[in-house]
Amino acid sequence: MQRFTPIAVILLIVLAALSSCMFIVRERDYALVFALGEVRQVISEPGLYFKAPPPFQNVVTLDKRIQTIESPDAERIQTSEKKNLLIDSYVKWRIVDPRLYYVTFGGNERATQERLQAQIRDALNASVNVRTVSDVVSKERDKIMSEILTNVARRAEPLGVEVVDVRLKRIEFAPEISESVYRRMEAERTRVANELRSIGAAESEKIRAEADRQREEIIAEANAKAQATMGQGDARASQLYAEAFGRDPQFYSFYKSLEGYRAAFSGSDDILVVDPSSEFFRFMKSAQGAPGTPAQAGAQR
Fold it and tell me: Would you say residue 187 has pLDDT above 80?
């Protein structure tokens, strides 16, 4: 077994003493140097530092980064309308006075969180109790967060802590009033829907009435034009008939008689009982339409 020489032992003792006298401060930490339980030095700059060996001096480090505290459970807060709301929030904070912070909390981060949560709860009550549900949910939400931040930051300053931000994550109705609120919202939406339906029905009737009126006007105008056109056509036809009759009355009579024959004898099974000597058969008796003698009539029959 290899034995240490006295020189090696001395070197080991010197290295151990030196290592207990040196410490490193990282960029994200504060370092508190204690001498016999009292804070002698606060170091905020990173680097390598020296101190007396324990038990004469010892070092405690504190995190200088921004930290987040989220509420474990939603806080039950009452509004000015005596309605209970469940509000989830979080706060971002950091240590700005390490000496004061350590004196206040003894480096216990859990105690810090509990103290800040209690302050947020008090600030929430102060801001929400004087406002309505509508104000808290939408209208003045940003203003409430600003008030809470100002209130908590002022109360946290003597603790060596800076509150950077406070946010309301979720706001809900308490279970006992959610159902009544939903029913009221449903009734309101139903009322608005019925109102819109009645307005739509009235507009529909108005449009139908206007369409019916326009249709009647168009039909009346069309009938008037049709009657005028038919009148003009009848007048023109009468004029043509008169001109034709004036030019050759005998041909006109012959043509009209042919039309009468065509209409009278259009059916193959038609039976016509009439006097052969009647005026209707005058063109059958004579090509000129003149009445024939009885002998001629008998011959024609």
Answer: yes
Tokens of 51: 């101190």
Statement: residue 70 has pLDDT above 70? yes
How many helices (H) and strands (E) are present in the chain, helices listed first? 9, 9
Amino acid at 208: R
Q: Distance from CA of residue 245 to its chain's centroid?
A: 82
The DSSP bridge partners found for residue 168 are: 89
Contacts of 106 (CB under 8 A, 6+ apart): none
249 against 28, higher pLDDT? 28
What domains does the chain contain, in order, with CATH numbers? Answer: 6-63 (no CATH), 67-180 (3.30.479.30), 250-300 (no CATH)
Q: Render pLDDT for 252-276 as a digit per residue (tens, 0 to 9).
A: 777 777 777 777 666 666 666 666 6
